[in-house]
Design goal:
The protein has 351 residues and is α/β, with parallel strands linked by helices. It is 21% helix and 32% strand. The protein contains 9 helices and 18 strands. A hairpin with a 2-residue loop joins strand 12 and strand 13. It catalyses: androsta-1,4-diene-3,17-dione + 2 reduced [2Fe-2S]-[ferredoxin] + O2 + 2 H(+) = 9alpha-hydroxyandrosta-1,4-diene-3,17-dione + 2 oxidized [2Fe-2S]-[ferredoxin] + H2O. GO terms for molecular function: 2 iron, 2 sulfur cluster binding; 3-ketosteroid 9-alpha-monooxygenase activity; FAD binding; metal ion binding.
Length: 351
């Protein structure tokens, strides 16, 4: 049995695996029990993810992000779904080793791949295990919203379709609101931009959310661009393997008198509150917010997960690593708080 005696950082929690569900031949869902005193901390929004600390004999541990496939409105326990990938250490370890009753260290829910309005009409795209955050959004919208939901789900063959039975049940239960369109490589070949555009043309005014392998995401972006869907209505979830250890507490950055004197001033809007902070140029936005005790959204602090994405309303920043942001995102003012340093003396930023 896998047990974890103590968490490795102040933010992480040890959760017990309540159940392991075989979804397909190469995908497993992990259902977690959350202790009563941690329920508030593990409240999540549709489309968010958990970061799991996976043991490794070679490095001690690796950190991997897995989307919540459960809905906070319809499921009693949080559930992530893991699909094996070739040479994927984390996914294979979880599928091979975790059983009901085991324990694993987890960071609280994070991520910004979530609808602002569950009443909106939603156009959802998923490929393979990219269905996981999309499924959370789909179930939540049907449970708490009143808009229409269209899902385009790409897989190799019928046996690869994760949540196939649940999707059928939901489509039967909500025939006026939910349309599920399967794209199977075995029958239709790989998805193409033209083919996807033809399928979703009637729904081009919907809010779009997409998750899956990069080639699939590229085709979806091309299809939506061809339908003149603005990037402001297109939301993509991208996961990279985390190289660092987000479970370890970071030591506070010491600031010299000279650095403090040269600090910028930033107004940060978070959850409807505005915080005015001094921002030394060597520190990141996440650093200064944590130092002030502000519950800023973040996970990896490496610029790889997008949890700390926010928008610059006034001023200018420089970023150490911005690879997960598209050029269009950067042009529209999106930044990563864990990678941003002030360039101008005054800034306004909104989460």
């Amino acid at each position: 049995m896998t047990t974890v005696e103590v968490p490795h950082g102040s933010r992480s929690v040890v959760l017990r695996v309540a159940a392991v569900i075989a979804e397909t031949i190469d995908a497993r869902s992990l259902v977690f029990d959350v202790p009563e005193d941690q329920r508030a901390e593990f409240t999540y929004r549709p489309g968010q993810f958990l970061t799991l600390r996976i043991p490794s004999e070679r490095t001690g541990s690796v950190a991997r992000c897995y989307s919540l496939a459960s809905s906070p409105f319809t499921d009693d326990h949080p559930k992530v779904t893991v699909k094996r990938t070739v040479d994927g250490y984390g996914s294979n370890w979880l599928c091979d080793n975790l059983k009901a009753g085991d324990e694993i260290e987890v960071l609280p829910p994070s991520g910004v791949f979530t609808p602002e309005n569950l009443d909106a009409d939603l156009l959802l795209f998923g490929a393979g295990s990219g269905i996981t955050p999309v499924m959370s959004i789909l179930k939540s919208a049907l449970a708490r919203g009143n808009g229409r939901v269209v899902l385009v789900y790409a897989n190799r063959d019928p046996e690869s379709v994760i949540f196939a039975a649940e999707l059928r049940e939901l489509a039967d239960k909500h025939p006026q609101r939910l349309i599920v369109i399967h794209w199977l490589e075995q029958l239709q070949g790989l998805p193409t931009a033209d083919g996807l555009a033809t399928l979703v043309r009637p729904y081009a005014q919907f809010e779009a959310f997409l998750c899956g392998p990069k080639p699939f995401m590229d085709r979806v972006h091309d299809a939506l661009a061809g339908l003149d869907v603005p990037r402001s209505r297109t939301h993509a979830e991208i996961f990279n393997s985390l190289a660092g250890d987000p479970f370890a507490d970071r030591a506070p950055v010491e600031v010299s008198d000279a650095e403090a004197a040269d600090a910028a001033t930033v107004e940060v809007e978070l959850d409807g509150e505005i915080h005015t902070l001094r921002w030394p140029r060597r520190q990141t936005l996440v650093d200064i917010m944590l130092a002030e005790g502000i519950d800023v959204p973040y996970s990896c602090q490496e610029g790889e997960c997008g949890s700390c994405a926010c928008t610059v309303l006034e001023g200018k920043v420089a970023m150490d690593n911005s690879e997960i942001l598209d050029p269009e995102d950067i042009e529209n003012g999106y930044i990563l708080g864990c990678q941003a340093h002030p360039v101008t003396d005054r800034l306004r930023i909104q989460f």
